[in-house]
Amino acid sequence: MEQPNSLKLEHLAEDIKPIIACVGNFGDYEKEIGQITAFEDIDYPVDFYSKPAVLTEHGYKNSGKETYVISTLDSKPKITKNLFDCTSLILVGRSIDDDRELSLLTHQSPHSFIVADRENFIADLQGRLIEARNNCTEGTVDVVIAGGHSTFADYAESVDVLATQVKEIFGFLPVIITGPKKQGGDDIYFDTANRRLYIVRPEVQVINESSSPEDVTENLIKWSAEHKKEEAEMIAKRRKVAEEEAKYL
């Protein structure tokens, strides 16, 4: 059977909308983010930097401090902050029991889930994905990947690990909702009920380009080239300013 093209929404039923991503700075979506953070049913954010015992107490999978965090599958909004090199996988699907939307969100360090804790991470992620498959109506599940750093050597492998698990459980590849940023950290807010994702990036760091995991290598080359061009332009501007200032010394 041919793999559904998730960029063309072939994995979703006709009446099911995909995750809609809004990428920008905090001020662009302050009102919407405020509504999410004020939501009374948020039990605990997906806090990568929290103590492992606290994460476990809230039902979140992890393998120790600052390794990875995999949230519970439920209808609550999801929040995670300060994704630097880390990536995040966001899943949503419609409950088989009622019309509620169910979601889960992850936050994982490349060093942990690619190297040190790879087996634990894959086992925990697969468990959550299977839980989602068993509790969501077929044709309603959408999955995207966000975060990461364009100069981090393991970004491509990070995406591959995540995409492989999704494809194995659901039969389609998740969409990379944004290209990796050049610096700084992403904050992620997910409105589960409306399938709306808000990705807050540092000023002038917005790269809003959805793609498939299969395109990562090609896109990394492009993003790297764009980064080098911007760096060269910045160096040239600074040099010009220095030369102008030197005239008055």
What share of the residues does DSSP label as strand, in percent? 15-25%
- Quantity of strands, as a count: 9
Total of helices: 6
Principal-axes shape call: globular
Using only C-alpha atoms, the radius of gyration works out to 19 Å
What pattern of helices and strands is seen along the backbone?
EHHEEEEHHEHEEEH
**Arithmetic mean of pLDDT:** 84
Structural class assignment: alpha+beta
Distance between the termini: 72 Å
What proportion of the residues is helical, as a percent range?
25-40%
Low-pLDDT segments: none
Describe the sheet with the most strands: 5 strands, mixed
Strand order of the biggest β-sheet: 2-5-4-6-7
> What is the number of independent domains?
1
Features of the shown structure:
6 helices, four-stranded mixed beta sheet, alpha+beta, five-stranded mixed beta sheet, 20% strand, 249 residues
List the helices and strands and how they pair.
Layout: E1 20-24, H1 30-37, H2 52-57, E2 68-70, E3 78-83, E4 87-94, E5 101-108, H3 110-116, H4 118-135, E6 142-147, H5 155-170, E7 175-176, E8 186-191, E9 196-200, H6 216-246
Parallel strand pairs: 1-9, 6-7
Antiparallel strand pairs: 2-5, 3-8, 4-5, 4-6, 8-9
Helix pairs in contact: 3-4, 4-5
